[in-house]
Amino acid sequence: MLSETRGAQILALAATTALLATGCAAGAGGGEGEKPADGKTTITWWHNSNNGDGKAYYGKVAADFEAAHEGVDVEVNAMQHEDMLTKLDAAFQSGDAPDVYMERGGGELAAHVAAGLTKDLTEAASEEIAFLGENAGGWQLEGKTYALPFSLGGAGFWYNKALFKEAGIDKAPQTFSELIDATEKLKKAGIDPISVGAGDKWPAAHYWYYAAVRECSQQTMADSIANLDFSDQCFTKAGEDVDKLIKAEPFNPGFLSTPAQSGPTSASGLLATGKVAMELAGHWEPGVMQGLTEDGKGMGDDTGWFPFPEIEGGQGDPAAQLGGGDAWAVSEGAPDAAVDFVKYMLSDEVQRGFAELDMGLPTNPAAKGAISDPALASLMDVRDKAPYFQLYFDTAFGASIGGAMNDEIALLFAGQSDAQKIVDASQDAADLEK
Predict the structure, then answer these.
(1) How confident is the model at residue 389 (pLDDT cuts 50, 70, 90)?
(2) Which of 63, 83, 88, 206 reaches 20 to 30 Å from 50, CA-CA?
(3) Which segment of the chain is annotated as a signal peptide (predicted)?
(4) Are strands 156-160 and 276-281 parallel, antiparallel or unpaired?
(5) What's the 3-state SS for 316-337?
(6) How does pLDDT run across 231-281, given as a tens digit for each residue?
(7) Does residue 286 contact residue 298 with C-beta atoms inside 8 Å?
(8) CB contact set of 89 (below 8 Å; sequence gap of 6+)
(9) Residues 17-154+324-374, CATH architecture
(10) What number of helices (H) and strands (E) belong to the chain?
(11) Residues with Cβ within 8 Å of residue 374, at least 6 apart in sequence
């Protein structure tokens, strides 16, 4: 856990009143503590573990909770990640949000709190918040906790060790130049180097986010988030770095329309099935890949991971991590049992099961030793020892700025934009928020 090591600092958004003013409709499904005529309390729960062992495990979690809480039914809705985000936005606007849902923190959470959509868990979940420690920081506003993170980790390159060996690459790239050199070796060996789900935009955007974390100092990054300011030249340099990689042509054929995680031809599917050598993705990747292969093992023993490389001359700490996490939040109008359910999902038992299936990096310290995949387990140490931890930009800056940013980065990947236009689009969206 972060607080057990050097106390890595999550650079979540410093929530200001201007940023909070997002036009979401207030209200949520169900009255607090109300029960229908049959005496049953129904909890609606949305999550994105929509295949394989993860989906089955969450079904068991719901059933176990029901068994221990007479009169409570958990209505589970598992869906593909992008579908869930779209449906959540629509549900909040219509006033029919699920009782329990996934919150990513930062500006997104701040907007939900400002609109009165998300329940304050500070008192009800004080025990869980205590053991979460600094891990809960990205879901706290003005001293209050609005969601309980169950998984938190950084992004990096997941790679196929066998394909690296076939291409004569004997060690993971440590610098950006070495990354580009590795893609050239893979291409010469007849191997597509990198898959990217640019069709969903955010996987492509992660390249610019990470390049900015490597180019910008920690203070510059913190000031940018607090002041919504992209004037430092490090942001332009980040775009130039990404453009250099794009021009090396390392990505899978058709990457501009490739989805992130849905099906065997997605970016994750291509990596899982040995069609490409690596992919920049978050800590969730092993669990996703397991659901995309017939044997349910993903890449298995060939799974490797290395952090986003250092950019020569950059002002950012090369050990800093970009990433994020997922937390369980409760809609403001949800029944009291929904809070109990969220607390249960942070319990030792549930978090250990989550870790054993390599579904992500658990936040409950009691589950730390339960991760079975060695590559994923190594991410726990990387997370805990990072000098600081930067939330994904579209989470930290919020939907409006993040959306404009991601759109322009996707255009860069398509050869229709440049480094300065990404900065300009981000600043224009930020100025509207001020």
Answers:
(1) confident
(2) 206
(3) 1-28
(4) antiparallel
(5) CCCCCEEEEEEEEEEECCCCHH
(6) 999 999 999 999 999 999 999 999 999 999 989 999 999 999 999 999 999
(7) yes
(8) none
(9) 3-Layer(aba) Sandwich (3.40)
(10) 18, 13
(11) none
CATH 3.40.190.10, applies to 156-321+395-433:
yes
pLDDT above 60 (res 146): yes
Q: Is there a contact between 144 and 108 (Cβ–Cβ < 8 Å)? A: no
- DSSP states of 225-279 as a string? HHHT---SHHHHHHHHHHHHHHHT--BPTTTTT--SSSSTTSHHHHHHTTSEEEE
Give dist(CA 46, CA 244) in Å, integer.
39
> Cβ of 308: how many Cβ atoms within 10 Å?
24
The pLDDT tens digits of the residues spanning 405-416 come to 999 999 999 999
- The answer to whether the beta carbons of residues 392 and 409 sit under 8 Å apart is no
Residue-level pLDDT at 51: 77
Which own/partner pairs from 374-377 qualify as long-range (CB within 8 Å, at least 24 positions apart)?
A: 375/158, 375/286, 375/303, 375/304, 375/305, 376/283, 376/286, 376/305
- Look at strands 72-78 and 41-47 and give their pairing: parallel
Domain boundaries, the chain: 17-154+324-374, 156-321+395-433
Do 17-154+324-374 and 156-321+395-433 fold alike per CATH? yes
Q: How many Å apart are CA 139 and CA 215, to the nearest integer?
A: 26
Distances (CA, A) of 88 to 67, 112, 189: 28, 11, 44
Nearest to 216 by CA among 205, 229, 203: 229
Q: Which is it for strands 156-160 and 303-306: parallel, antiparallel or unpaired?
A: antiparallel
State the pTM of this model.
0.79
Render pLDDT for 158-188 as a digit per residue (tens, 0 to 9). Answer: 999 999 999 999 999 999 999 999 999 999 9
**Residues with Cβ within 8 Å of residue 10, at least 6 apart in sequence:** 2, 134, 135, 137, 138, 388, 389, 391
Over residues 373-381, mean pLDDT: 85
Task: Dump pLDDT digits (tens) for 98-137.
Answer: 999 999 888 889 889 999 999 999 999 999 999 999 889 8
Residue 71 burial class via C-beta count within 10 angstroms: exposed 0-12, middle 13-18, buried 19 and up: exposed
| Of the candidates 325, 326, 331, 327, the residue with the CA atom closest to the CA atom of residue 120 | 331
The Cα–Cα gap between 412 and 414 comes to 5
